[in-house]
Amino acid sequence: MGIGYAAIAIKAGFTPFETISMSFLVYAGAGQIIAASMALSGATAIAIILTNFVVNLRYFVMSTCVLNQVEESNLPLNILAAHVTVDESFAMFSLSEDSSIWIYLGIAITAWLSWCLGAGIGVVLLDLLPVIVTNSFNISLYALFVAILIPSIKESRQIALLVLITAVLNVVLGQFLGNWSLIVSTLLGAAIGMYIVDDEYLLSGDA
Amino acid sequence: MDYIMIVILGCAVVTFIPRLIPALCIDRLNFSPKVEKFLNLIPYTALAALICPGVLTVDNQLWYIGLIGAVVAAGLAWKKVPLGAIVILTVVVLITVYSIVPFF
């Protein structure tokens, strides 16, 4: 995915330095790809920044979950952890039973640096890699998400039902809400989950 | 400052603020069991919403490419294959599928 982002950014006129800086400073998978695509199609800076705000609002929820789960942390570590919170690091950590800030930072900083490295590789190899290969790498993030979810789905029909409901909700709401639908269906899904999932099926983050 | 630098710095700020707020006030918050449960449910619903329908746009032209990838990953996870191996095998399967598609 880092490579795919670099491809679009370079096409939109980013220099290699700007392409990699964005991965380092913004660090938002889908957000960066959307920003680069919008820049490519000539959108205004304000429109791009506002869209990014909406698309990345989910990190507020993820950051809250992660920081609620970690123990024995302090403010500087929390701030670092907040910056490196993305879908992958959040998913891997929140569905594990670890609660150490160091384990989280280990997972999340590795993911952050590989994302920046991916952008670097993309800048260099762009013209060498066939579309087939870059598209095939696009699946890796989704493969990770599916792989993280399956054990819980297997264990609990209630979780499976909740996942199904939320997925349908997101598809339906996407027709009306566009970029807002991801965060709205995540929160609405969790609210529905309050009623259909028994406590015993949930990993308790910091209990 | 040029257009691209404004975009990068602007996106960096609006992305960092939502991440930062919980870091600044998490110590002062004590969540009730109900809020805890709500937060514990978020990973499942967030992943569900991230996967569906996003996985169908892995390839902009061929929606089933993503579906094949998701089914392969799910099958491997069901058989308790380790995470890293699932990701690598899924990518390999897709490269294989892409090599076969032109023959149909």
SSE diagram, text form:
The complex is a heterodimer of chains A (207) and B (104).
Chain A: H1 2-11, H2 16-25, H3 29-40, H4 45-56, H5 58-69, H6 75-83, H7 87-94, H8 101-125, H9 131-155, H10 157-177, H11 181-196
Helix pairs in contact in A: 1-2, 1-3, 1-8, 2-8, 3-4, 5-7, 6-8, 7-8, 9-10, 10-11
Chain B: H1 3-25, H2 33-51, H3 63-78, H4 83-100
Helix pairs in contact in B: 3-4
What does this protein structure show overall?
The complex is a heterodimer of chains A (207) and B (104). Chain A is built from 11 helices and no strands. By secondary structure, chain A is an all-alpha fold. The longest helix of chain A is centred in the middle third of the chain and has 25 residues, at 101-125. Chain A is globular, with a radius of gyration of 18 Å. The model of chain A has no long low-confidence stretch (mean pLDDT 88). Chain B has 104 residues and is mainly α. Chain B contains 4 helices and no strands. Chain B has helices at 3-25, 33-51, 63-78, 83-100. In chain B, helix 3 packs antiparallel against helix 4. The longest helix of chain B has 23 residues, at 3-25. In chain B, 40% of the residues are buried. At the A-B interface, helix 2, helix 3, helix 4, helix 5 and helix 6 of A face helix 1, helix 2, helix 3 and helix 4 of B.
Cα shape of chain A: globular
How many alpha or pi helices of chain A?
11
Radius of gyration of chain A: 18 Å
Largest sheet descriptor of chain B: none
Radius of gyration of chain B: 20 Å
Please tell me what the overall shape of chain B is: flat
User: How helical, in percent, are the residues of chain B?
Assistant: over 70%
Oligomer: heterodimer
Proportion of strand residues of chain A = under 5%
Order of helices and strands of chain A: HHHHHHHHHHH
Q: Indicate the low-confidence ranges of chain A by residue numbers.
A: none
Low-confidence stretches of chain B: none
